[in-house]
């Protein structure tokens, strides 16, 4: 890869003290890793490689903790590297690039030796740095920020997410430019993006999908963070930042019911396997059950999590509910008694995603620490941990329909398919944008009747599209535009022989798509979806602020 | 799905070793797993039947209808129906879909043991206290009871020989002394095996209700008969303090190439404690019938013998009270038993240690130190895009994410996890799903456990009108712990 001269200069670990104004460099400060790396030249190369790897995925943690990317470096060293990196990149904006410095792991301490003035300077810069990094993490993790506090995954749905994206992009550009101020800031972003152009379709087997918009369901007052078909596909449940769960009729798009009771935004919903109950997990730290048939709330909320509930999943028998939370734990709830039956010491970072395999014996969880863990439901033991080399935060996880693979969304614009038995990533699906939100999706089935069913992977994107990839070829089968903001959730189903898809997004809408019949002419004029508006919306429209519960701040 | 990830050495252990759980709902006296092994039915002293969910260890359903202690429980094959028999002279067939009573059958005497036909949930046999055993057809609302013979089968005398009437009379008098204590169906349900008070085993044809074969097993009373899940072995507990395993003939070949006269029941093993002369409260086969388990009289131990050599392999310990009914999970190495004194249900199973290598993918577990051999290209540096692209290019597998492999586990390991009995209709196991009741636990806790202060609970007496105050300290401790397993109480 080509680097700007400034960067190269900066990276070059020239040992000459004439360039480096710090004359004192104690041998203690050089790490053993460095010594092991052989010549300085090698070291430079290696370091550059590790940095450029970081560019593929900029570290987005508020604290300098990072896992080894290259496999050969100690975590400590890298952590310092990352911090130095951020600091220099920030600084690069305001002042010229520094002369070549040795990127030793002791950079921080060196900075403080450097002189009082500069040390303080950097001290001051530390704060905004951290803040911005925190913002980069999906779902608005930082509880102290006002506008996102009650919203969880569907955070800043209504406020200026464009602003966030702008900042985010800005942020990334700095990463790309490596702090050199002589490169243009934002304009060359598009061609630098690792997003591959969707390859042209190939003739054998259906090479594209034809999902067409069917309904546009309006009713949520704020962004919709989760949408799910009922097990028999006749209903659609959606939950969002307005703390309401809405149930829609799949056939007509009519609103059947609205469940209100949560004190903060809803991040996740799950249907019980018998289709009678919807569970919703919220930023008010509780999980509530709603009876779809009677339209009543279950009297006992599931209380136990210490922080936002991010994702929940019913076991296939409906007797266990699994929840993952911002408090880093995974709870297994006895649904009948609404009590925690087992708590898994799951992760060291907020748990982003949860799924239960079809026969209920395994639970998958993932977190922003970049780990995907597979758990045994019966014993509560961790059976496998999956981690990608680049260690991007994993925000959502799904088992494949046959339970042999795990699909994981990570914040490096990738959806990965893992063979969890062998611990290998076997497919990477790209083409969507996923840098800060916890998107989710799933598997769908396509193929002509009579032919063996093919599977596709579907996901939302932060640019407002829904993407479908073929599982095997990784090619984009369809890209559905429509949403005006981030698409947070997608689900698929088959109802009466028709294949349907539903998506929800930050724009507060739920959209239903139907697969076009391959026999019929594709020149169907009805491209405008039938909009279904909730009648009562204008009448009552409760203030969304009411739903924002103080999270203890 | 989890079998491919579990340590095969853990899977290979096929009998439990550790006391792991303690379930409690009232004073349980009898237990029975359903065929799938996800629910455990327990009958209580007060006549309530409580169904536990083994996955959550919570109460899944309560069935109220009996007024006296439950004597036996029997699940239908698909797990939807449950037959309970009680000392209140009744048998009730429950539909677990909605908890309703399908049939209630009254008898003239308390019921010892009632067992459903393995394939027809509207047919059952019941052995009664000091009365003739009956085969009951409940397909119509009015039950049809047919009395089963208790007398041993006498081969018909040769026609050309005169029979002394005195001998006949003597035999008849002897036969009249037999009373049947236990009746069970064979695996296919075409025959009934009955054990009598004189230590005889009778094989009775279900169709005709006639005895086709008899043998003398022992001198004492046959207390209990159990059939292994594949129906090839019979286990008997008798009052002579010996547990016997008996190899069953293939009765489905009767009339093809097997004559009733050529049936031979052969005792394979006799298990007994020769030193202590223990007698056995209850016996059961393990899931694969490899092991025989028995709870002991006046002793808190559970003995586990293995059948290939007939040796004692394990004594399960833990509770400090005598144990009554003991049951083995139909597919897992798990034993449950209920305490006679407290009515708690104890569970023994295998505790597998956490594999630490599972927590970090780059960790491996080694037996001893290993010299690390560095790969040739281990520290080579490649540009990130190249690495990324190469990684993408390597993803050329063709994963099948849709097809669910049938009985994946049985091909992976010869573990005790397999379709019980391998019956042709083994796939009907998943056909019925008990609905999950969300309000079960409220009624449960309010009725049985009374909070008397922060963190302390006492059990309300199971019998109506009796007061729990007179109960001992041990009882309270047991109740408190039992309540603790239901987390709601613990949180309260």
UniProtKB/TrEMBL annotation, chain A:
Pfam families: Beta-prop_WDR5. InterPro entries: Beta-prop_WDR5-like (IPR059122), WD40/YVTN_repeat-like_dom_sf (IPR015943), WD40_PAC1 (IPR020472), WD40_repeat_CS (IPR019775), WD40_repeat_dom_sf (IPR036322), WD40_rpt (IPR001680). This is WD40-repeat-containing domain protein. Residues 195-204 have a biased composition (Pro residues). Residues 108-134, 515-524, 543-553 have a biased composition (Acidic residues). WD repeats lie at residues 217-258, 259-300, 302-343, 344-385, 387-428. Coiled coil: none annotated. It comes from Aspergillus taichungensis.
TrEMBL record, chain B:
It comes from the Eukaryota. Residues 443-492 are annotated as: Disordered. It comes from Aspergillus taichungensis. PANTHER family: RETINOBLASTOMA-BINDING PROTEIN 5. Keywords: Nucleus, Repeat, WD repeat. It is found in: Nucleus. One of its GO terms (cellular component) is Set1C/COMPASS complex. WD repeats lie at residues 63-104. Gene3D superfamilies: YVTN repeat-like/Quinoprotein amine dehydrogenase (2.130.10.10). Residues 468-478 have a biased composition (Basic and acidic residues). InterPro entries: RBBP5/Swd1, WD40/YVTN_repeat-like_dom_sf, WD40_repeat_CS, WD40_repeat_dom_sf, WD40_rpt. Pfam families: WD40 (PF00400). This is WD domain protein.
